[in-house]
Amino acid sequence: MLAKKEIVLGVSGSISSYKSVEILRELSRLKACVTVVMTKNAVEFISPLTFQILSKQKTITGLFEAHQEFQPEHIALSRKADFLLVAPATANIIGKFASGIADDFLSSLFLSMRAPILLAPAMNPTMYLNPFVQRNLSLLKKNNIEIIEPGVGEVACGESGQGRLAAVEDIVERVIQKLRRESSLQKHNIIITAGPTREYLDPIRYLSNRSSGKMGFALAKVAYQRGAHVTLISGPTNLSPYSPHINYIPVVTTEEMRQAVEHHFPQSTIVIMAAAVCDWQPLHPASSKIEKHTLPADFFKLQNTPDILEFLGQEKKGQIIVGFAAETTNVLEKAKGKLRTKNLDLICVNDITQEGAGFDVDTNKVSLIDIQHNVIHFPLMTKEKVAEKILDKVETLVKK
User: Fold this and answer.
1) 169-190 tens-digit pLDDT
2) CA separation for the pair 341, 371 (Å, rounded)
3) Nearest Cα to Cα of residue 90 among 15, 35, 24, 22
4) Annotated active-site positions, please?
5) Please, how many CA atoms are within 13 Å of residue 112, restricted to the half-sphere of its CB?
6) Three-class SS of residue 91?
7) What predicted TM-score, i.e. pTM, was given to this entire model?
8) 3-class SS at 104?
């Protein structure tokens, strides 16, 4: 999260400036306070009012706008800013930065900035590869200005090559890496499990469930954004981790998940078991495909899979353990029983019969129960928002 961080978003004149609106949305969603500074050319592509409404801050477009204070505004802004992001950064503004030219607000701000700076170039591929532009970028890099490389593909003029503005999520991720907020999760090692597990009946067929993994992956994203060292252990899903800095361990069976969790458990301080682990496995799985007309009499004889959560509750030495319960009846009573018998610190429970609160959806409606049996009910919200609420509660437990 970027709470209370002062970020300046510089926007220069490019057709890709519409993506700056998406960047602003993402930074604002992460609770950053964003001031937008536009060049004269940028105003030709997008209205300053758009940024002003979304940022709830005055959009700065000129160096000589009226000031209520004597202090030049670009100096004042540079002193309070925690970060300067210029996206898109055109060849023109890159050239000004590299040459020390200060003929508008953004270039003047650049020269007075003390905080970290990130530039996201966007331009025609031929322009980007021009030796003068590359020289300017090289000079900026040598002076500790960070550059996020543009993407490869077709640009507005119809040409293809390197020059497209980097993906919004990659730009925001780079900002987060620099400004991950100090929180009580900073430097904590968090294990998060996600997705379903599979128990094979034969090499083709298996027992599993409908878990998509979205809840666990959302938890991993938010925990990482809050500064934690995250190990994400997930069964089969169609998802990718939010950041390459998240230690991602894919598994398939419950036993594989157990081994991975137990391996990392001693170094962890928090474990959040969001995976929907398959509870049973065949007593005698077949080593080859079972043919349709030769079904063995004991084909459906099952045994329990390892109870990972129970093991963690028994073995914890100061770790905070968070469990999940997906129920259809007596929801709170069953969750409280699981909280007690498995020695958990917190449990997140949902009634999967409620619309929008089950599997395969982007939303969830949960209740949190702590060891004093205090219950917090949350309305239907996105799984990422649910992850924020869970980690808010975890942070209060860490502080205690």
Assistant:
1) 999 999 988 887 556 788 899 9
2) 11
3) 15
4) 157
5) 18
6) helix
7) 0.72
8) coil
